[in-house]
Specification:
Distance between the termini: 36 Å
Order of helices and strands: EEEHEEEEEEEE
Largest sheet: 6 strands, antiparallel
Oligomer: single chain
Number of strands: 11
Number of helices: 1
Helix content: under 10%
CATH topology of the largest domain: SH3 type barrels
CATH class of the largest domain: Mainly Beta
Number of domains: 2
Strand order of the largest sheet: 4-3-2-1-5-6
Radius of gyration: 17 Å
Length: 149
């Protein structure tokens, strides 16, 4: 069974947090690292959290991404919105690809995770993901990332 783990940046301190996703209102989300004995895809109104005394952190909805179920070469979880790099991807780069990384996205049409590189996309599970490395997130300051060559 696949783990449904989410990641988002906390509203209070802008740090990443991982766990189960809670829908507080139609536009507000939170993440908890407590795993109540319901199912592992926990999406519930905030009233249920208060009744169950579950502690959670409200997160910026724009930063929420789901765990792909895959790990990079360093054992780091790969989430939607992550920037990944590996030498295999270089063969797909064109002159228009000034940044040599792919952004992980969910492909709704084909029901799979893809690596999106401005001019091309590839199936994440078919692209030697085991050799890739998470180098950041689209939600982090790109100037803080070191260039991978």
């Amino acid at each position: 069974m696949r783990e449904h783990i989410y990641r988002g940046k906390r509203i209070d301190n802008r740090e990443w947090t991982e766990g189960l996703l809670i829908k507080l209102t139609p536009t507000r989300y939170a993440i908890t690292d407590e795993y109540p004995s319901i199912n592992n895809r926990f999406i519930a109104p905030s009233d249920n959290c208060k009744k169950a005394d579950i502690r959670f952190h409200e997160v910026d909805p724009d930063t929420v991404g789901e765990f792909t179920g895959l790990l990079d070469k360093n054992g780091v979880r790969i989430f939607e919105g992550d920037k990944i790099y590996n030498d295999y991807m270089l063969q797909y780069c064109t002159e228009k690809d000034d940044e040599k990384f792919a952004v992980i996205e969910w492909d709704k049409v084909n029901g799979r995770y893809i690596g999106n590189m401005r001019t091309t996309c590839f199936n994440l599970q078919a692209c030697h993901f085991i050799e890739c490395e998470v180098i950041g997130s689209i939600h982090d300051n790109s100037e803080l990332l070191t260039e991978t060559t």
